[in-house]
Amino acid sequence: MKVCVVSTWPPHRDGIAYYSKHLYGEVSKAAQVTVLSNVSTLNQNRGKLLVRKTWNRNEWLYPFEILRAVLRDRPDVVHFQHGWLLYGDYLKSSLFLVLFFLLRLRRIPLVTTIHTVIKRDKRLFENRLVNLLASYFVSSVSILMVKFSNRVILHNPLMKKVLVKQYGVKKREKLTVIPHGIKRAVKMRVKRDYSFEVLSLGFLREAKSINQLIEAFHSLRSKYGNVTLTITGGKHAHDSQAEFAEFMQRIESEDNGVMVTRFLDEETLENLIAGSSVVSLLSSDDRFVESSGTLGLIADYEKAVLCTDITKFNVDLTNNVNSILVKPNDFEETSRALFRLYEDEEFRVRIARELKKIAKHRYWDIIAGKHINVYKKAIIDACT
Fold first, then answer.
1. For the domain that residue 334 is a member of, what is the CATH number?
2. Is 105 inside a domain boundary?
């Protein structure tokens, strides 16, 4: 089977790029995979996985550049990774529908993974008219995306429910739920410098509630001195450089046991995860139905996780069972959660073990196998 993938790819920094790297590394063990990406590095050719620079973000003609590459490769199926603003600004990002229409005309099987479904009842803009137009735009694009695809992959049942109930998507049989993959933990010996280490992971932006975590951590440190907080991440590819610089200036001015690092190589990051006592994944934006890629990175390491009680996390996690969930922007509740995780080691160990149970069903090789099955169904659909 030949699979042609349209996606971002590392070193481009967004969640879908890292998702694709893990997924197609496994899919390529069973199929020939060509990734049509936006990376500016040299072509990457690893056995049955070829990564080729084909398009640039925010350009008007990217759908035709992708189509030309697809027609040249003549794949059995095209797999398109969709994220809002992944391919450009509000207008350019929707031009992928031109590509979808042309692929449909040529009867080329198309599978689309929708990484984020936007809730229709959530406000995207303060201006009432702008918000109304944006809502109509999102609704139209979402419906057409499903219409032109032979199969659509979603990460959790709630995403499917929103598309069917709120957007009125008719053909439920097109929609397949495949969870976000989880990376297998790397076993290593770790030397701890502190008795309790909190690790915050993810892109560094206002919506990640970093200030909330720092304030709660300072409260913990004022009572227990042998604790540390490491904040690891960096700028998302779609964020403003000026806003990121201002945000980092505020964060890096903190002291008292807080260490801020930028993006790290894979081995260093795995060491940090393995050596941590608690991993914090906070966010304040609940407009979107999606699954956390960062959770997929750490779930197999048997670490207690502190998350915000929003859709991104509570679709997969249960409070006090396999995680501890706190309200968005609630310093006091976050502080109480940190104290509990520090003082109640039995609880911390228990929720970490429960989280690891999720991982064994979602390793990337298992998820890749589910994708192969969807590709086969899409090929049959396109022929009927």
1. 3.40.50.2000
2. yes
What's the average model confidence in pLDDT over 200-219?
Answer: 79
174 and 101 fall within a common domain: yes
Residue 186, in any domain of the structure: no
User: Could you tell me the residue range of the domain that residue 300 belongs to?
Assistant: 196-359
Q: Do 233 and 95 belong to one domain? A: no
pLDDT tens for each residue of 21-58:
999 999 999 999 999 999 865 456 666 899 999 999 99
CB-CB contact of 284 with 336 (8 Å): no
As beta bridge partners, residue 82 has 114
Tokens of 356: 């690891």
Q: How many domains is the chain partitioned into structurally? A: 2
Distance CA 97, CA 38 (A): 18
Q: What is the pLDDT of residue 266?
A: 75
Respond yes or no on whether the N-terminal peptide bond of residue 11 is cis (omega within 30° of 0).
Answer: yes
Q: pTM, whole model, 2 decimals?
A: 0.91
Residues 200, 225 share a domain: yes
User: What pLDDT is attached to residue 202?
Assistant: 77
Domain assignment present for 191? no
| 258-309 pLDDT tens trace | 777 766 677 788 888 998 999 999 888 888 999 998 899 899 999 999 999 9
- Shared domain check, 313 and 210: yes
Rounded Cα distance between 379 and 28, Å, is: 18
Same domain (yes/no): 288, 379: no
- Count of alpha carbons within 13 angstroms of residue 4, beta-carbon side: 21
Name residue 206's beta-bridge partners: none
Statement to judge: residues 223 and 91 lie in one domain: no
Q: What is the pLDDT of residue 11?
A: 87
